[in-house]
Specification:
Elements: E1 4-10, E2 16-22, H1 37-41, E3 46-47, E4 56-57, E5 60-61, E6 73-74, H2 89-93, E7 106-112, E8 115-117, E9 121-123, E10 140-142, H3 143-150, E11 171-178, H4 196-210, E12 215-220, H5 230-239, E13 243-246, E14 249-254, E15 261-267, E16 272-278, E17 280-285, E18 287-289, H6 293-300, E19 327-329, H7 339-359, E20 369-371, H8 381-385, E21 391-394, E22 399-403, H9 413-417, E23 423-425, H10 430-441, E24 449-454, H11 458-467, E25 476-481, H12 489-497, E26 502-507, H13 518-535, E27 543-547, H14 553-568, H15 572-596
Parallel strand pairs: 8-19, 10-17, 11-12, 11-17, 12-13, 24-25, 24-26, 26-27
Antiparallel strand pairs: 1-2, 2-7, 3-4, 5-6, 9-18, 14-15, 15-16, 20-23, 21-22
The structure holds FE2/S2 (inorganic) cluster.
FE2/S2 (inorganic) cluster is lined by residues 454, 456-457, 483-485, 507-508, 513-515, 518-519.
Length: 597
């Protein structure tokens, strides 16, 4: 559905309801033969977005060659006036009578069992990188602009020309990794955009094909030609005389008269500072997540990586699945990738979706939450904290919360946040976790560090430490929860009451939590507990919060060593005082509750 936008998505796997706004085209797409008479008659000229402003279009236009459907579209914001008295020329020119100024947007509701998210990406805008001067120098273009220039269907019919004088340049330089692989640079991104090396190699070959005598240089950090046949292409480019210079220019200056460009670069192969004079520069810009991804993320409660792309359920075993059942990823929505990888992923995503739908039913994980209807007061806190929108509460009619098991992923945040203990996590019940706390602290509690570790990152971090044969103190005892969000405040107090000197909660780094953003609730909860500890005169350092990923075995052992050092600072007397304070608080709490009742 073109010219359409997703307005809302409700429901869960097998029961999605998608509201789509289909914008008015003002041209009957079934009747339009794309003859172009309307555009010829239209007096409006606007920069052509598809040609990145290198040519113009009319207010009624076909967005790009091969657009589907092959029919004209009228942009009401560009149109002089749809009233025939003001303009109306396109309508007059259209013999088939396809133009309808009164067309209205439509709103459609679709039912879907599964969803494939393929929201694409945007090219990086190099404007903020002052050192390259993209907006100052007319003969510096981006890759996308270059693609339009060298395209036979583009504004120059495939002639690569300088924008300052429309002449074919004698020399062209490509600058790689523009906006990519720049950790620490706030104006750019730390990740590799995946496609730029091979795209530039392809562009250099095209240039050499069109203009064999042209001098072509590529400035790079390193060339990543890892795909099938890619190395061959790289060698072909070098064989055609393209010069590859290892080093990115630190400064670019313009020759004021001729508008040629001087690049100052440290060649890291020769360790020499060099100056290169070229007539045109192409900035090989990276890829960035599209802005619309945020809207879809909210609607579907998806996770994102720190790079801003969607996070898959598992990088190796579920590379096209989202963390929510029935939602899959395809293409650059998940990470920067080239066409071949995007097509492969799209095939995988559609196969995953088809497999699910053809079976007609799903098997849900046994680890889901369940509501004790007698205890539930319909306060709605569980629904608020659920990252998957898997809980509904009818507050108005005071109906107990309902868990949609098909949507529940089992993080346990609802169980930890419920102030009435009205939610239990199957297989990670309060009783089960508290039994572990008590078992750990039954003997010599002062010698123990109680560590709650989330299944996916911190617990796996312990495994990494083990596999790498790293040592960590034996005093540390791990209690596994699926997510750090499951660690209930009462587990902490019970541990301190039972004599724990130090309690550690460890989970995934922000952005890596396998339950979308459940670990944000962990942080909030721990901050609340720290405040209480301060108020009650307890040393808040005794409760620690650490983010450790599955790959951080070294960090895991270092954190555990630090916990052991901290444990040694906690005296017998401090533990005894803590117990007293907590008992007193408990008594006060009970008294208050009695008075209330
Ligand atoms: Fe590790 Fe949520 S899964 S903190």
């Amino acid at each position: 559905m073109t010219l359409s936008e997703i307005k809302s998505i409700k429901g869960y796997v097998g029961n999605f309801e998608v509201t789509v706004q289909k914008r008015a085209r003002y041209v009957n797409e079934n009747e339009c033969t794309a003859c172009g008479d309307c555009a010829q008659a239209c007096p409006v000229l606007k920069p052509d977005e598809f040609e990145i402003g290198l040519s113009s279009r009319k207010a009624i236009f076909i967005p790009f060659p091969q657009a589907v459907p092959s029919a004209y579209v009228l942009n009401p914001l560009d149109c002089l006036g749809q009233d025939p008295l003001i303009c109306g020329k396109c309508k007059e020119a259209c013999e088939k009578g396809c133009i309808d100024y009164d067309a209205q947007d439509e709103e459609l509701t679709l039912k879907a069992g599964t969803i494939v998210v393929a929201t694409g990406m945007e090219p990086y805008d190099p404007t903020p990188l002052d050192e390259y001067g993209y907006t100052r120098f007319p003969n510096m273009v981006t890759t996308i602009e270059f693609e339009r220039l060298i395209n036979a269907g583009g504004p120059t019919k495939g002639e690569v020309v300088r924008l300052s004088d429309l002449k074919v340049p004698k020399s062209v330089a490509f600058i790689q990794c523009v906006g990519s692989r720049s950790p620490g640079n706030e104006k750019a991104n730390p990740y590799c955009s995946n496609i730029c090396c091979m795209n530039t190699i392809k562009d250099t070959l095209m240039l050499k094909e069109h203009y064999p005598d042209m001098e072509v240089k590529v400035f790079y950090i390193d060339i990543r030609a890892f795909g099938k046949g890619f190395e061959d292409l790289f060698q072909r480019s070098k064989g055609k005389g393209v010069k590859y210079i290892r080093g990115l220019p630190g400064d670019v200056q313009e020759d004021p008269g001729a508008h040629d460009l001087k690049l100052f670069v440290e060649n890291t192969s020769t360790d020499r500072l060099e100056r290169h004079h070229v007539e045109m520069v192409v900035l090989s810009q990276g890829l960035v997540p599209s802005e619309d991804m945020n809207k879809i993320q909210e609607m579907l409660a998806l996770q994102k990586t720190s790079d801003g792309f969607y996070l898959e359920a598992h990088p190796k075993l579920q590379p096209v699945d989202s963390a929510s059942a029935g939602i899959f990823f395809a293409g650059t929505a998940e990470s920067p990738k080239d066409i071949k990888d995007a097509v492969t992923q799209a095939s995988a995503a559609s196969a995953r979706a088809a497999r699910l739908m053809s079976s007609g039913k799903i098997t849900v994980e046994a680890i889901t939450s369940r509501v004790d209807e007698d205890k539930c007061t319909s306060c709605g806190i569980c629904a608020k904290v659920c990252p998957y929108n898997a809980i509904t509460v009818d507050k108005k009619n005071k109906r107990p919360a309902v868990v949609i098991e098909a949507a529940c992923a089992g993080c346990g945040t609802c169980a930890a946040e419920c102030p009435f203990d009205a939610i239990e996590m199957n297989h990670f019940t309060d009783t089960q976790i508290l039994s572990q706390v008590h078992a750990i602290l039954e003997k010599e509690p002062r010698e123990k560090v109680v560590c709650f570790a989330c299944n996916w990152c911190s617990y796996a971090g312990a495994d990494s430490a083990g596999v790498a044969r790293l040592n960590y103190p034996t005093n540390v005892r791990l209690i596994r929860t699926m997510c750090s969000g499951r660690v209930d405040e009462k587990f902490i107090w019970k541990a301190f009451e039972a004599g724990a000197p130090v309690v550690l909660i460890s989970g995934c780094h922000f952005g890596d939590c396998h339950y979308i953003d459940a670990n944000h609730w962990t942080k909030k909860r721990v901050e609340k507990i720290w405040k209480k500890m301060e108020k009650w005169g307890l040393r808040k350092e005794r409760l620690q919060l650490e983010w450790i990923s599955a790959a951080e075995g070294i960090r895991f052992s270092q954190v555990m060593a630090r916990m052991e050092e901290l444990r040694k600072t906690v005296t017998k007397q401090e533990i005894a005082e803590t117990k007293n304070i907590l008992r007193e608080n408990l008594k006060k709490k009970k008294k208050k509750r009695k008075q209330k009742n």
